[in-house]
Known about the structure:
This protein has helices at residues 8-27, 31-45, 48-60. The chain contains 3 helices and no strands.
Amino acid sequence: xxxxxxxHDKSEPTNLLSGANHQQSQTTLPPVVISLPxxxxxxxxxxxxxxxxxxxxxTYHV
Length: 62
């Protein structure tokens, strides 16, 4: 071992990367936080209630 090397030099990048991953995982949002509002906006934009009601009326139409 060289005089300027220490045992901790080799493990520091691993600790640094695991710390960055741990910090990033705490700030990520659950997918439902993003997907649910987008799905609701899409439902409203395509006039979802009209599509559902009209298809139900057509299936029970005699």
